[in-house]
Amino acid sequence: MLSTKEHVTKEEKVVIDYMNKIYEKIKERDPHEKEFLQATKILFDSLIPVFVKNRTYIENNVLERLIEPERVISFRVPWVDDHGNVQVNRGYRVQFNSAIGPYKGGIRFHPSVNLSVMKFLALTQIFKNSLTGQAIGGGKGGADFDPKGKSDNEIMHFCQSFMTELYKHIGPDTDVPAGDIGVSRREVGYMFGQYKRLQGAFHAGVLTGKGLNYGGSLGRTEATGYGTIYFVDEMLKDQRMNFRNMTIITSGSGNVAIYAMEKAIKLGAKVVACSDSNGYVYDKNGLSLQTIKRIKFSEGARISEYIKSHPEAEYFDDCSKIWSVPCDIALPCATQNEIDEESANMLVKNGVKVVAEGANMPCTIEAIDIFLDNGVLFGPAQAVNAGGVACSSLEMAQNSARLSWTFEQVDEELQKIMKNIYRNCTRAANKYEHPGNLVIGANIAGFTKVADTMIEQGVI
C-alpha cells in the first residue's frame, strides 16, 4: 500500500486508491521483481501531490501506460572461453520510454543482473534523463556475465556475441547504450567494433563512453562523480554551507566514487573512508587519492592494499560497516540498497548533514524516510548521479556535429546541467508543498515533462 500518512484528504484518497490499484496489478503480475517494485513504490509515493493537482494524468491513465516498458528484449549470449568451452549468459535491453527522445541508458555486466534489476534501472533512467533537459528517453541493458577473472580475449568474445544480438535493436536515433558497472571503455570499444562490422558503416552516435579516437568525449569518465559533487554543492549553498573542512565517506572505489572524491577534495573537503566489495579503508587524517587511483586504476587491486602504503590507515573487512564512520557527508556510490534502516540510523546518530546517492537506488525506502524525518539533506539518485548520462548526451551532440569539445567546455556544460537539475527539483518540491524534499521534487520534475509529452503525442 502507498502513503503512510495517518490523515489524507478526499482528493489524496482518490489518487492513492488509483495508484494502489496499479501497484497491486504490477505486484500480482511480477511478484518476484523486488527491485522494480521498490522503485515503483518510491515513484508512486512521490507523485501523489502532482496527481492531486493534475487530474488529467488519471483521466489519460498516464501512470499505467508509463510504468509498462515499451519493449523488453531478452536474449542468449553464447561465447567461447580460453579453454575452448562454450559458455552461455542471458542478455537484456529494456527500452522503457521514448516520449522525449531515443532510449538512453547504460549496459551492465554483473552476476546480479536480471529482468527486475534492468527494469528498475530503466524506470529511474526515464526521469533522470528527463531532468537533464536533454532530448533522451529511458532504457537500460546488461547481462549476468562477470568480467572479473576473465581474460581480455574472453571479454572481447562476450562483448562481440552480446552486440551480435543487440545491434538489431539500437541506433543513433533509436537506442543509444553506454557503459555501467562492468562495462568500461574497453567493453564499449569491443561492442562498437562489432556493431560497425555488422552494419558496414561508422555510426559514432550509437554508443557513448567511447574512446577519444573514435567519437568519445573528454570529461565522460569524470562526469558522474563530478556531477554528484556539483549537485551537492548546490544543496550546501542553499544552506549557506560549502565543502570546506567537511568530512566525507564514500562507498565504492570505481569511477563515480573516485572522481566524486577528487572534486570534493579540490573544493576543500576531507575524504576519510572509501570501500570496495570486500571492505573499507579509513584514515581520520584523510585518504590519499593518488594511492587509491594507483590501486584501483593501475593495479586493479583491492582497497585493502591501501594500508601497505599508508600503515597509519585502518582496513575493515565488512564494507557495509563503512556507514558507522562519523562524517558530515555520505556518498553511497556502489550499488542498490547498500544503506538500510540500521545504517541510516547510524549515520544520523553520528551527525551526518548530507546524504547524496551517487549510485542507483543505494538507499532503501526505510533509510530515505529516516534521513528526511531527521532533517538530513538528501539527494536522490535520479538527480544526483545524472551527470554521467548528461555528459553522454553531450557526446551524442558532438557526434552529430562531428566535433570534439575541450574538457573545459564539457565540464562547463555539466555544471550548468547539474545546477539546473537542482533548481528544477527544488522548484517542483516547493510548488507541490514539500519544500526540501528532493525525492518528491526530482520525481515530479522528471515525470511531468515525460507525462505531458505522452499526452501530447496521443495514446498510440
Q: How would you explain this protein's 3D organization?
A:
With 460 residues, this protein is α/β, with parallel strands linked by helices. The protein has three domains: 1-68 and 440-460, no CATH class; 71-202, Leucine Dehydrogenase, chain A, domain 1 (Rossmann fold), CATH 3.40.50.10860; 221-379, NAD(P)-binding Rossmann-like Domain (Rossmann fold, 3-Layer(aba) Sandwich). Helices cover 49% and strands 14% of the residues. The protein has 17 helices and twelve strands. It has helices at residues 10-29, 34-53, 56-59, 62-67, 115-131, 152-166, 185-199, 220-238, 255-266, 289-298, 306-309, 341-349, 365-373, 381-384, 387-401, 407-431, 438-457; strands spanning 71-80, 86-97, 103-109, 138-143, 175-178, 247-251, 270-275, 280-282, 314-316, 329-332, 354-356, 377-379. The strands form two sheets. It has a seven-stranded mixed beta sheet, with helices on both faces. A hairpin with a 4-residue loop joins strand 7 (270-275) and strand 8. Helix 5 packs across helix 17 (438-457) and helix 6 packs across helix 7. The radius of gyration is 21 Å and the shape is globular.
**Unreliably modeled segments:** none
How much is the average pLDDT? 96
Kindly estimate the percentage of residues that lie in beta strands according to DSSP.
5-15%
Principal-axes geometry comes out as globular
Strand order of the largest sheet: 9-8-7-6-10-11-12
Question: What is CATH's topology name of the largest domain?
Answer: Rossmann fold
State the CATH class of the largest domain. Answer: Alpha Beta
**What structural class is derived from the secondary structure elements?**
alpha/beta
Tally of helical runs: 17
Q: Gyration radius, to the nearest Å?
A: 21 Å
CATH H-tier superfamily of the largest domain: NAD(P)-binding Rossmann-like Domain
Largest sheet, strands/sense/barrel: 7 strands, mixed
| Helical content band | 40-55%
User: What gap, in angstroms, lies between the N and C termini?
Assistant: 30 Å
- Tell me what the CATH architecture of the largest domain is: 3-Layer(aba) Sandwich
Order of helices and strands: HHHHEEEHEHEHHEHEEHHEEHEHEHHHH
Q: How many structurally independent domains?
A: 3
Give the number of DSSP strands.
Answer: 12
Organism: Pseudogracilibacillus auburnensis
Keywords: NAD, Nucleotide-binding, Oxidoreductase
Binding site for NAD(+): 224, 255
Domain Glutamate/phenylalanine/leucine/valine/L-tryptophan dehydrogenase C-terminal: 217-458
